[in-house]
Every structure is written in structure tokens, then in C-alpha cells.
Amino acid sequence: MKMVFLGPPGAGKGTQAVRVSERYGIPQISTGAMLREAMAAGTELGKAAKSIVDAGGLVPDDIVIGIVRERLARPDCKRGFILDGFPRTVPQAEALGGFASLDLAVNITSGEDVIVERIAGRRMCRKCGDALHVKTLKGAAQCPRCGGEIYQRTDDNEETVRNRLKVYNEQTKPLIDFYSRKGILVNIDGDREIDGIFKDVVAVIEAKGR
Ligand code: ADP
Known about the structure:
This protein is an alpha/beta fold and 210 residues long. It has helices at 13-24, 31-41, 44-55, 61-72, 90-99, 112-120, 134-137, 158-172, 174-181, 194-207; strands spanning 2-6, 28-30, 81-84, 104-109, 122-125, 131-133, 150-151, 185-189. The chain is globular. Residues 9-10, 13, 30-32, 35, 52-53, 56-59, 64, 85-86, 88, 92, 155, 164 line the site of adenosine-5'-diphosphate. Adenosine-5'-diphosphate binds at residues 9-10, 13, 30-32, 35, 52-53, 56-59, 64, 85-86, 88, 92, 155, 164.
């Protein structure tokens, strides 16, 4: 299964992508996570990306397209992959079409109020990459799934979230139409519990024949 997750920040793309990756044994490719790794390691890419990511803007298309093109060329992507956070603009989607053929685009929908509340309280696991919420963590310093260290993303604050939503509406939302016209789009309501959403995601994947 070669698939992408679409949806606004905080809709639960990454949460679902981690679970699909575990269930089907195909890699989750998150451009956001790759950029955060580069930022943490202080590479040239990381240094260039940091101010953009922290302001909630988009890293230039040619940079992310290059990263994804290289990643998809690796052998573990032969059987399939899950793209999470890419493409985010129409030019990215067009470029992707030149080096990969997708089976499915899952659009996770979510209301803006839900998103802001989720992101402001969101924490991440450094080890498994899962997203957690302060409400469920209840002060725990370790990931309940894998024991990894918990941290808060520097761009997960209310001000940056508003900008990320604006950028989403202007630049990423058009991808819903883009993939709808290609006949591979499925919408899933993201304003529900993780397990309920995952059940629907699995049903859609199975219906496509993996
Ligand atoms: P979320 O889905 O919660 O907004 P991501 O982890 O996918 O977060 O992305 C975090 C940030 O990394 C984005 O706000 C953006 O600055 C940058 N980024 C990630 N993917 C892309 C992309 N495909 N194109 C441009 N910038 C990106």
C-alpha cells in the first residue's frame, strides 16, 4: 500500500501513520519528523529549516521534495509506505507523482477548535514518534507505549498553530481536490477516538486490497 495522509495539523495523521506502519510493516515517512531530526542534529538542513518550522511556515518545496525522493528510493519502500505531512503543496504533489504512484490518499478531517486544543496539549515521544496529550499522560515523563522520553515540539504553541492552520488552508487544502480528481481520496472523521479512526483507516486499506 502506497498512501498519503492529508489533513490539518493536529488532525491525527501522525498518530494513525504510526499505527498503520506497525500493522502493515511498511515505513512511515514524516517530513516533519525528518526536519526535526535535522534540527536536533544541527545539520545544514536543520539550521535552514529551524526558523521556518518554528514560525509555522513551509520549508521550500525543492528541499522537501529532494528529501522524500531520496527516502522513497530506499528498498524498505518497495512494498509500500505511508507519507505523513508530505505533500503539503500542489507543486509537491505534482513532483511526487513523477516518482511514485499512490494507491490511496486518506484525508483526516477535524474542526479548528479541536485542533488548537490538541496541539497546545500535545507531547511527543522521542523514541517511537507517537503523539500524546497531557490529559492522558497525567504528568508521566515516559511514553506509555515504549518508555521513550517525552518532549514538546517548539512549534506546538497556540500562536504558531494559528499560522500553521492558515498555511494549511491556503496551501495544503487544495490537495483534497487534487487527489479527489485522481479518484484515490477517502475522507475520515478525525474528531473521534484514536481506535475508532484507526478501524476506519484499516477498513479503507483492506478495501483497496492493501
Ligand atoms: P503537523 O502535521 O503537526 O503540522 P509536521 O510534523 O508534519 O506537523 O510538520 C511540522 C513542520 O515541518 C511544518 O509546520 C513545516 O514547517 C515543516 N514541514 C513538514 N513537512 C513539510 C512539507 N512537506 N513541506 C514544507 N514544510 C514541511
